[in-house]
């Protein structure tokens, strides 16, 4: 499968716990004021890459603890990311997904757009739009205090957001 991405980072320590391979998808409908990655908003920007090419890059780094899907909005490319996520989990790596949607919105829409499939391979979900007025440098792996760090697997089973410590 193919993904439209803005880029990748091979050894990130700011996009989730441990050493991570971060994939920044291209295209975002939220357009949050003060967004850290405004260059990812244009759905026609970035470049096309196959999930197999991304897997090769991930496999080549034995130091990784996990992979992060960020953006842009990952849930706009949920089908390809969920397929990639299944292969990543086979490698024993965890997945953090950042989204401007709330868990509740995604869970309610889980039957559509492959959202449920992407939630099912996500270990930790950072949800909610970035709100500039709530920007907070002190919280781990989030940009604004409204955003939550969620145990996605437990939340999906329970049908409600369950926050955890990063």
Order of helices and strands: EEEHEHEHHEEH
Count the beta strands: 7
The unreliable regions are none
- Which class do the helix and strand fractions yield? alpha/beta
Q: Span between N and C termini?
A: 31 Å
Spatial ordering of strands, largest sheet: 3-1-2-4-5-6-7
What proportion strand?
15-25%
Shape: globular
**Biggest sheet architecture:** 7 strands, mixed
Question: How many H/I helices?
Answer: 5
Backbone CA Rg: 14 Å
**Mean of the pLDDT scores?**
96
Helix content: 25-40%
Describe this structure in words.
With about 170 residues, the protein is α/β, with parallel strands linked by helices. Helix content is about 25%, strand content about 25%. The protein contains five helices and seven strands. A seven-stranded mixed beta sheet has the order 3-1-2-4-5-6-7. Helix 1 packs parallel to helix 2 and helix 2 (about 80-90) runs parallel beside helix 4. The longest helix has 13 residues, at about 80-90. The mean pLDDT is about 95.
List keywords for this structure.
alpha/beta; globular; 23% strand; 5 helices; 25% helix
In short:
With 166 residues, the protein is α/β, with parallel strands linked by helices. Helix content is 25%, strand content 23%. It has 5 helices and 7 strands; from the N terminus they run βββαβαβααββα.
Give the SSE map.
Blueprint: E1 2-12, E2 20-25, E3 47-50, H1 51-59, E4 66-70, H2 78-90, E5 94-98, H3 103-108, H4 115-121, E6 124-127, E7 148-151, H5 152-158
Helix pairs in contact: 1-2, 2-4
